[in-house]
Amino acid sequence: MINILHIEKSSFSMKALERIANNLGHVVYTAEDEDSIFEILEDTSIDLIITSTSISEGIIIELRESEYEDIPILVLTSSDDIHTRKKLFNIGISDYIIKNQMTEEKLKLYLDSFNKAQGLDLNGRHLEIAVLDDSHLSLKVIKRIFNNTTFTNIDYYSNYQDLLDAKKGYTLYLIDLVLPGASGEEVMLQLRKNNPHSVMILMSSVTNFKTISNLLLMGADDFIMKPFDRNFFIARISVHLRTRFLMDDLNKSNEALSKMANCDGLTGLYNHRYIIEKLKAEYDVAKRHNHSLSVVMLDIDFFKKVNDTYGHLVGDEVLIEVSDLLTNYLRNTDIIGRYGGEEFLIVLPKTNLEEAYKTINHVKNIIEQNNFPSINHTLTISGGICEYDGQEISSMIATADANLYKAKNTGRNKIC
Questions:
Q1: 20 to 30 A Cα–Cα from 22, which one of 70, 112, 189, 204?
Q2: More confidently predicted of 169 and 13
Q3: Edge-to-edge order in the sheet of strand 199-204
Q4: Which of 191, 188, 169 is CA-nearest to residue 178?
Q5: What is the pTM of this model?
Q6: CB 34, CB 59: distance < 8 Å
Q7: Among 260, 398, 404, which Cα is nearest to 342's?
Q8: What is the pLDDT of residues 274-297, one digit of tens each?
């Protein structure tokens, strides 16, 4: 439901609009003069003001300079020439409808779109938007439009250099084409370097289709004509943001699918297949650039006893806890995978044997000192390390595995 203030002197026009709006489920408050207008505004929360060109322009200007300046104003006019449109938008209206086209269906379409703009979600509250226009009137009109949507994180710029110097990256940029000292397309191209995925919409009263097509070819996502049609303005922004959100959702889905394909479902570490792929990639780099590379096989000591004593569900909890410790205490450059069962394969790029031993022994000590809540006592791990010296990948894994079993057979809780 929308609360509408209808400013009109003609009782016939008042009743006609009231009948149409009431049929659509909206409430209409009528006012004939300035005093009654402000009385209604003081007493009632008004969403939309509808008036006609028969009402003094001074009243519209006064509304725009009052505390009610953010309420959109829809004008019913009998003229549709460019001069009238510019004049109306210059005094601060939000939109207009041609009187002889003002049918119930036409008003319903407008009010429905107004409702959508008011309730526009599209994660609007969380988006960051930048508006650049050297015209304070245009900035005021755009601000008025946005004030009736869920978009709230909006920064307004009248100087292009201030926008270029800003440290923020915005989801959406609205850029005036004609600016003092630079063109909108130049500003857009500079912004595009650091914000390749942002939506960039240029704005202007230019109607030359060749100019507009060139701007689109240069990287603008869209072009909005001035003076602004409120519904078209919101619709164009919504289309591009909806596409952006769909792409974000698609990327998230692809990431989730990739994680499902490449990660172990229990621990979240890389699975057997993918850790081998990561090892192959690091192996190629080490071979090509003559870098150090070490691989480690780790195994939880006496893990079978955990499963036999506490059950496999608790055993799974222990595997998760050990995986978390490995993730938290190994370096960001180290690559960890669940090789199988309670065994872990760790790839240490640009790391020689001595550095690998120091790193893994440190993690071994942390795990040994950790109290595992699921079994209420400590655990130990054993490990075997192999450094790349020209052998094949299979040989590196076999050597690390042999060193692991050497650690197991010589007392456990050690790294060989």
A1: 70
A2: 169
A3: 153-157, 128-132, 172-176, 199-204, 222-225
A4: 188
A5: 0.48
A6: yes
A7: 404
A8: 999 999 999 999 999 999 999 999
pLDDT tens string 167-206:
888 989 999 998 998 888 899 999 998 888 899 999 988 7
Separation CA 387–CA 123 (nearest Å): 50
**Structure-token pair, residue 76:** 């019913």
CA distances to 112, 138, 160, 241, 243 from 127, rounded to whole Å, are: 24, 21, 21, 10, 14
CB within 8 Å of 123: residues ≥ 6 apart: 245
pLDDT above 70: residue 399: yes
In terms of C-beta density within 10 A (0-12 exposed, 13-18 middle, 19 or more buried), how is residue 211 classed?
Answer: middle
Averaged pLDDT for residues 317-325: 93
Once rounded to an integer, what is the mean pLDDT over residues 45-65? 81
Taking residue 332's Cβ as centre, other Cβ atoms within 10 Å add up to 5
Question: In the numeric block, which tokens belong to residue 101?
Answer: 């086209």
The end-to-end CA distance of the chain, in Å, is 74
Tokens of residue 409, six digits:
């057979």
Whether the ω angle into residue 196 lies within 30 degrees of 0, i.e. cis, is no
CB atoms within 10 A of CB 314: 15
pLDDT at 354 over 50: yes
What pLDDT is attached to residue 79?
74
Residues 141-178: tens digit of each pLDDT: 888 888 767 677 899 999 999 999 988 889 899 999 98
By the 8 A CB rule, do 61 and 89 touch?
no
DSSP string, 188-247: HHHHHHH-TTSEEEEEES---HHHHHHHHHTT-SEEEESSPPHHHHHHHHHHHHHHHHHH
Whether the CB-CB separation of 363 and 327 falls below 8 Å is answered with no
